[in-house]
């Protein structure tokens, strides 16, 4: 399981960042391209990449026999869980659909980058 330590550390950093108070602006389409969304995409791309690296190092296949799908599902579900956690447990934090979209885009980019460097 040592191969997953970087992914676990990344998930912990995401948890810490998600629990900190922040400035939340009203949702709009312009919010989708804000720097905040770029940050979401980068950290979830990194999480997906590190999960895939862990699967490869540990020579694990993942659920349903597909490590790529497994890493995507883990990353996306974690992103949605973090948004729910912010809404339910941290005053001043909100559930944002655009954050989830940015997380998914980042997860897909992390998969693409992993495939690019491992072919």
Description:
The protein has 119 residues and is mainly α. The chain has one domain (36-119). It is built from 4 helices and no strands. The longest helix has 23 residues, at 35-57.
Keywords:
119 residues; mainly alpha; single chain
Shape: globular
Could you name the ranges where pLDDT drops below 50 across 5 or more consecutive residues? Answer: none
Structurally, the number of domains stands at: 1
- Approximate strand percentage: under 5%
Approximate helicity band: 55-70%
Number of helices: 4
State the order of secondary-structure elements, H for helix, E for strand.
HHHH
pLDDT averaged residue by residue: 86
Radius of gyration: 15 Å
Derived structural class: mainly alpha
Per DSSP E runs of 2 or more residues, the count of β-strands stands at 0
Give the terminus-to-terminus CA distance.
24 Å
* Main sheet makeup: none
Short description:
This protein has 119 residues and is mainly α.
Topology:
Layout: H1 5-19, H2 35-57, H3 67-89, H4 97-117
């Amino acid at each position: 399981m040592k191969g997953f330590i970087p992914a676990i550390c990344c998930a912990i950093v995401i948890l810490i960042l998600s629990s900190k108070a922040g400035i939340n602006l009203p949702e709009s389409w312009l919010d989708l391209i804000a720097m905040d969304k770029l940050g979401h995409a980068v950290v979830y791309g990194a999480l997906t990449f590190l999960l895939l690296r862990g699967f490869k190092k540990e020579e694990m296949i993942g659920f349903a026999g597909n490590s790529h799908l497994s890493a995507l599902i883990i990353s996306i579900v974690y992103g949605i869980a973090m948004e729910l956690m912010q809404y339910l447990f941290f005053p001043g934090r909100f559930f944002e659909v655009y954050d989830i979209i940015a997380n998914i885009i980042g997860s897909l980019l992390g998969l693409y980058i992993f495939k690019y460097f491992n072919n």
